[in-house]
Amino acid sequence: MKRIVKKIGFRYAIVLTAICSILPFVSLILNEWRDAMGQQLLFLSFMALFCAAGEVIIIESDKRNFSKKETMIRFLIHYMYINIVVIYFGIRVGWFSLDNFLEIIVVTLMIAVIYLINILVSYYKDKNLADRMNRILLSMEEEKE
Amino acid sequence: MKIIIEEPAENAEDEIIIRCKELDEKMIRLIQGVKTNSGTVVAHDKNMTYMLEPDEVFYFESVDNHVFIYCRDKVFESRQKLYEIEEFFENSMFFRASKSVILNVKKIKCLSPAFSGRFEAILKNGEKIIISRQYVGVLKEKLGI
C-alpha cells in the first residue's frame, strides 16, 4: 500500500510538472492565454491527481506479476484512461470542445509524446543498469574460469 | 526410530545411512532436513529422489502450488515451498526474480531491459526469465551494486 501511495505521489508530481510545462504551449495553440489561470491551475491539479491515480492500472500487485502481454495491455488501457481524463478536464475548463476534432488530436498526440519520453528515459536508465550488471556477470564468469 | 551413531574408520568420510522399509513422506522430510543443512537440494522425479548441488540448479518456479527445479535440461519437483527455498538460499547467489521464480545469478548469461522497469535474464541454457521491477534491487545487491 505504501509503495502504491508513493508511486501515485511520484507520478502525480511528474504529470503535474509535465502538464504545467506544456500549459503555455497549449494555451497558445488554443488562444486562451488570458483566461482565468488560477481556476485552470486548480483544475490542472485535479487532472494530475486523476492521472496519477491511473497508476493502479499498471502497478503490479503483491500477489502476482503481470505477463509481458498483460503489461502491454495495461499500458494501453492506462494511455486511454489518461486521454479520457485529460480530454474531460480540458472540456470542463474550456480548453477545447468535442466539436473541434483537431484539438482532440493535438491533445492525444501530446499525451503520446509524454508517454514516449517517459518510456525512452526509463529504457535508457534500465539499459545502463543492464550493461553494468552484464559487466559484473562477465567478470564473475572470467574469475570462475 | 532407532538412531545409531558410530565412529567411522580412520580416513573414512562421515556418512549417514538411512535404513528404512519404505521412503515415505516422513522419511523424505528427514532427508530434506539433513540435506538442506548440507546445502544440497532434494529433487523428485516420478518415484525417484535426487540430491542436486545448488550449482546445478538454474531456477525454482512455483506453478499451481507445485515447486519445480529447473536444471540445464531437466526438470524436477521439490516438496519445499518457494518461500522456504528463498529463506534457505538467502545468503547465496539465488534471489527472488518474481512472485513465482527464484533464480541462480550464476546461471545468468546476460540481462536486457524489458518493458516497464523489468529485466529479461537470458540463462546459460538459452531460457529467458523475467525479473520483476520490485526484485531488481535484490539482484543489484547480489551483484554488489
Task: Please report the total strand number of chain B as a whole number.
Answer: 10
Structure classification of chain A = mainly alpha
Number of helical segments of chain B?
A: 3
Bin the strand percentage of chain B: 25-35%
Helix content of chain B: 10-25%
CATH architecture of chain B: Beta Barrel
CATH superfamily of chain B: LytTr DNA-binding domain
CATH class of chain B: Mainly Beta
Q: Quaternary arrangement of the chains shown?
A: heterodimer
Number of H/I helices of chain A: 5
Order of helices and strands of chain A: HHHHH
Biggest beta sheet attributes of chain B: 5 strands, antiparallel
Structure in words:
With 145 residues, chain A is mainly α. Chain A has 5 helices and no strands. The radius of gyration of chain A is 19 Å and the shape is elongated. In chain A, 15% of the residues are buried. The model of chain A has no long low-confidence stretch (mean pLDDT 82). Helix content of chain B is 19%, strand content 33%. Chain B has helices at 25-37, 82-88, 136-142; strands at residues 41-45, 48-52, 59-63, 66-70, 75-78, 94-98, 101-104, 108-113, 119-123, 128-131. A 5-stranded antiparallel beta sheet of chain B has the order 5-4-3-7-6, sandwiched between helices. Chain B is built from 3 helices and 10 strands; from the N terminus they run αβββββαβββββα. Chain B has one domain: LytTr DNA-binding domain (OB fold (Dihydrolipoamide Acetyltransferase, E2P), Beta Barrel). The mean pLDDT of chain B is 87. Chain B has 145 residues and is α+β, with helices and mostly antiparallel strands. Chain B starts with 24 loop residues before the first helix and ends with a helix. The interface between A and B is medium-sized, with 22 and 27 residues.
